[in-house]
Design goal:
Mean pLDDT: 89
Oligomer: single chain
Shape: globular
Strand content: 15-25%
Helix content: 10-25%
Largest sheet: 2 strands, antiparallel
Bound molecules: zinc ion
Strand order of the largest sheet: 1-2
């Protein structure tokens, strides 16, 4: 992620993201980029019954939202404003979203997503990322 974007996220980035260096091929750290991973992951949901798949290797749940995308209210906590999703996009909520989208960002697109109480994709409201104990984690 670009450092200017990360800096604009302020203290919420420190609370919600693991941040690491990005190394260049030369072995030097990239100055204007950081590797980020959200501490909390949620699913972007769709409006069609798409079913779900479980990765046989790691047990991660895979869903492919079709139709109009939305978030589930039960996945959002008032004290966490940045989330990840399995495809690597970041989800910004509340004040972080409002703060960042008022600025003009080159090459970055912010897409507002509605939040629903009831899912529209035929899957349960609460979906955890792992459906069984992850093999990598249990070692
Ligand atoms: Zn897997």
């Amino acid at each position: 992620m670009r450092c200017d974007l990360l800096e604009a996220m302020g203290h919420d980035a420190a609370e919600c993201l693991y941040v690491g260096k990005v190394m260049l091929e030369s072995g030097e750290p990239a100055e204007s980029f950081r590797a980020v991973r959200a501490k909390r992951t949620l699913f972007i949901r769709g409006t069609k019954d798409t079913g779900q798949r479980i990765c046989p290797t790691c047990g991660v749940r895979i869903i492919a939202p079709l139709g109009k995308e939305h978030l589930m209210a039960c996945d959002l906590s008032p004290d966490l404003l940045i989330y990840g999703e399995p495809e690597g996009r970041l989800i910004l909520a509340g004040a972080v979203f409002r703060r960042l989208k008022t600025r003009r960002w080159r090459d970055i697109v912010f897409k507002p997503l509605p939040v629903r109480e009831v899912p529209a994709d035929g899957l349960p409201a609460k979906l955890s990322l792992y459906t069984r104990r992850c093999r990598l984690k249990s070692q």
